[in-house]
Specification:
It contains 10 helices and no strands. The chain is mostly helical. α4 (117-131) runs antiparallel to α5 and α8 (187-199) runs antiparallel to α9. Residues 44-77 are annotated as: Disordered. It comes from Paracoccus kondratievae.
């Protein structure tokens, strides 16, 4: 596990770039506060339609043989998917009603599809390892995934969670940078960005990240709680 007190390569660049992608802010001067790392749930994992029951628990990556599957999405199919996402985000942002929950589920399901059965298998293996608390194995599977499918935002996001749980904040922020480049509306990535910045003691930028996430998905209870907590804290400091 990487010590929070050790300088992390590319940490400053990652934070600055992430903030420019989703927020307004300048470069970030890191001062490790020595706070304990609190484990966070894997936010927004899409429901698995066919979860494998007999996956290997071994930490070694198994050879991937891609099963018979539909052809990778065509450009027309990807365009339809993007249009579907646009409509779902409109529905997700509605402040009232219950249809937002269905929209959230549909968004997460679309995000979880890489277009390749082999890459989807790597994703599921990484997710299963993370659920079991085995961050080393999870990072191994998810690194293979991001190497082979660099345009698949869900792989970067899930690896950022694993890296965060290992207190490897610099690489976690670099992965969030990739997520937000690929999908600037990734509310889970923005909420996780707020979590990391709050953990590091940068309450102002953490608050900005949470607020941006809530602009996209206003129904996130954890982000709502974080905004209230930080607003009260910062107002108390200004008093």
């Amino acid at each position: 596990m990487v010590s929070m007190l050790a300088p992390v390569p590319h940490f400053h660049r990652a934070v600055a770039t992430v903030l420019l992608l989703g927020l307004a802010g300048s470069s970030y001067a890191w001062q490790a506060p020595g706070l304990p790392v609190h484990q966070i749930p894997v936010q927004g994992v899409a429901p698995q339609e066919n979860s494998p029951e007999n996956e290997s628990d071994s930490g070694a990556a198994e050879p991937l043989s891609e099963p018979a599957a539909p052809a990778e999405p065509t450009s027309e199919a990807r365009l339809r998917e993007r249009e579907d996402l646009d409509l779902l985000f409109v529905e997700l942002a509605q402040p009232e009603g219950e249809t937002w929950a269905r929209a959230e589920t549909d968004i997460l399901r679309i995000w979880s599809r890489s277009g390749s059965a082999a890459m989807d298998l790597l994703y599921k293996r990484g997710e299963a390892a993370l659920d079991a608390g085995d961050t080393v194995t999870a990072i191994g599977h998810l690194t293979a995934l991001t190497d082979h499918a660099p345009d698949f935002a869900a792989g970067w996001y899930l690896r950022s969670v694993a890296l965060y749980l290992d207190a490897d904040f610099g690489p976690a922020l670099a992965d969030l940078e990739q997520v937000l480049r690929l999908e600037p509306r990734h509310f889970n990535a923005l909420t996780q960005l707020g979590t990391i910045l709050e953990e590091l003691g940068d309450d102002g930028k953490a608050l900005a990240a949470y607020r941006r996430s809530l602009q996209i998905h206003p129904h996130q209870q954890d982000a709502q709680d974080a905004v209230r907590r930080l607003e009260q804290k910062l107002q108390g400091m200004d008093a």
